[in-house]
Amino acid sequence: MDKKYIIGIIAIILIAVIGGALMMGNSTTQRADDELVVAALGHNGEPEAGMDPILGWNYYSAPLVQSTLLKMNRDMTFEDDLATDYEMSGDYKKVTVKLRDDVNFTDGTPLTAEDVAFTYNEAKASGASLDFSNMKNATAVDNYTVEFDLEEPDSSFICKFPYLGIVPSDSYNNETYGQNPVGSGPWKFVQWDKGQQIILEKNPDYYGKECEFNKLTILFKENEAAFMSAKNKELDVATVPIEYANETVDGYTMYLMDSFDVRGIALPVINNTGEVSEEGVALGNNVTADKAIRDALNYGIDREAICEGPLNGAAAPNYDAMSSAAPWANPDAAIKDGDVDKAKQILKDGGWKDTDGDGIVEKDGLKASLNLYYAANAPERQAIAVSVAEQAKELGIEINATGSDWDKMDQIKNSECVVWGMGEPDPSTLKLEYYSDLAGVGYGNPALYNNSVVDGYIDSALSKEGQDSYNELSKISWDGKTGVSPKGDAPWLWVANIKYGYFVDDSLDISNETANIQPHAGDIFSNLEDWHRVSSIENK
Q1: How far apart are CA 382 and CA 87, in angstroms?
Q2: How far is residue 86's CA from residue 79's CA, in Å, rounded to a whole number?
Q3: What digits encode the pLDDT tens for the residues 324-371?
Q4: Is 290 in contact with 363 (CB distance < 8 Å)?
Q5: CA–CA separation, 481 vs 511, rounded Å?
């Protein structure tokens, strides 16, 4: 037989064997012990603008490539990063920060106060990063001193310092920076394969604690794709989608990690009279404008059943948007929910009755029928929407749960019910949910709530520090006469404080005891410098 023919047959057989093995799911991504492969960037997925903090990169999460002024610890205390000291004025309207003088960007240029001021001012102008609407401006006083001037008192302003990465002012270009970022953080950008992955390498010139690993690959895989990659042993860490929270994967441990993140449904408190916002968005809902509807939902919906059932135990009931993990949480905010009889009585006392026998109560000819929208790519929001809709039937309230996208929901966010997510390591974010002046402004106060007493609690909290500030915030939830909890005005139906789940390769110790409480969207990388291998990948 011809030798070339024999070689050809052997080649075909080899290709078939290799291809068959791959199709059977036995492939394993080759990686060294000092490399990390992770599919856990957060539920926002691949960053559209790349790794540009000014355009929103890693909102309230570790920016990895860039340095920040401070770092946040698990117990919500701060430690220095670029900052060596900071001072807040007595009226909480100015913050002065002193900087290290020994930090360079990875392009070799020194990092100075000019870079810090530039980054913060550009972030404010872009509107795509953290909320800097209260910041007048940032100013470089000298090479290593920067001042922040605020419009209104805000003792929580420093809570933003651990999350906005600093960029080089001389070379920054908002059209190109995100594709090839230059920073001074613990990691150095290598490449971005769009739609697939970002690859980083350890920054050898980083001034902080050295990480054990030399390479970090972040895969853009979510939900089922990340779960399957873990099953195929292709990575070190994978986000656990809510539907797989009770699953197990051989060779991996599942961690459910605490978060600030809560899910709730905004219930517009004003009638729809045809008025629209400056954005052209309709305002108000004639059904939820009736307090009896809002109260009935808050007392009648069984949050525990939703958390233990559809959310697979990866959540805890929530009543006031304040995560139980937050130091400003109010343990007395809970009510006895799932009380169908009480909810029905509230509706009856409010004049809502089922007069035509169709199972839906009505009042003055208006049916208690609502639309409830949720982001279709968020399984936990779908689970909440569908569950609330099902439970509301027993109360006599019809809810139509509909999956959608934010282009659509932006147009109905102040007139229809929407499942929202919020929760950051920054108490001032509560202002976005309740403050009167923010009603209908962007994503602020979607329920259009207006209560001067509650505004006063928030203003007072931002004019105090520490526990004094937290005590003021707690009044938002427990004031039965004027508060915003189910005991008061109920502009929200808060449902669940979710946990973030991750499958972690058993060869890896992620030092969970030092991991920060996770923000909205998650952040597995908050303590990456503490991670280490406990056994070789090859010897698993």
Answers
A1: 45
A2: 11
A3: 889 888 888 888 899 999 999 999 999 999 999 999 999 999 999 999
A4: yes
A5: 45
Q: How confident is the model at residue 23 (pLDDT cuts 50, 70, 90)?
A: very low
Q: What is the arithmetic mean of pLDDT over 159-184?
A: 97
With both helix axes pointing from N to C terminus, report the angle between 291-300 and 379-395 in degrees, rounded to the nearest 10: 110
CA distance 422 to 429: 8
CA distance from start to end of the chain: 45
Tell me the C-alpha to C-alpha distance, in Å, between residue 482 and each of 345, 445, 454, 485, 490. Answer: 22, 17, 7, 9, 10
Under 8 Å CB-to-CB from 457, ≥6 apart: which residues?
472, 473, 475, 476, 479
Whether residue 411 is predicted with pLDDT greater than 90 in this model: the reply is yes
Q: Residue 264 and residue 279: Cα distance in Å, rounded?
A: 23
C-alpha–C-alpha distance, residues 457 and 439, integer Å:
17
Q: For residue range 418-472, list pLDDT tens digits in order.
A: 999 999 999 998 999 999 999 999 999 999 999 998 999 999 999 999 999 999 9
pLDDT digits (tens, 9 = 90+) for 258-308: 999 999 999 999 999 999 998 899 999 999 999 999 999 999 999 999 999
Q: What is the pTM of this model?
A: 0.89
How far is the CA of 263 from the CAs of 314, 364, 422, 430, in angstroms? 13, 32, 7, 13
3-state secondary structure of 460: helix
Q: SS3 letters for 241-280?
A: CHHHCCCCCCCEEEEEECECCEEEEECCCCCCCCCECCCC
Residue 25 clears pLDDT 50, i.e. is over it: no
Task: Specify the 3-state DSSP secondary structure of 121.
Answer: helix
Write down the H helix ranges in 301-446: 303-308, 340-349, 379-395, 406-412, 431-434
Residue 388 CB contacts under 8 Å (≥ 6 apart), including other chains: 265, 297, 301, 306, 372, 399, 401, 493, 495
CB 148 within 8 A of CB 157: yes
pLDDT in tens, 47-65: 989 999 999 998 899 999 9
* pLDDT confidence tier of residue 194, bands split at 50, 70 and 90: very high
Position 180 confidence tier, pLDDT thresholds 50, 70, 90: very high
Half-sphere exposure of residue 468: CA atoms within 13 angstroms, side-chain side = 7
In single-letter form, the type of residue at position 108 comes to: G
Which helix (H) or strand (E) segment is 222 a member of? none
Between the CA of residue 114 and those of 111, 143, 414, what are the distances in Å? Answer: 8, 7, 40
Bridge partner list, 96: 87, 147
Alpha carbon of residue 536 to chain centroid:
33
> For residue 31, what pLDDT is reported?
80
Handedness of CA 247, 525, 258, 157 (dihedral sign): negative
DSSP per-residue letters across 431-468: HHHH-GGGTTSTTS-TT----HHHHHHHHHHTTS-HHH
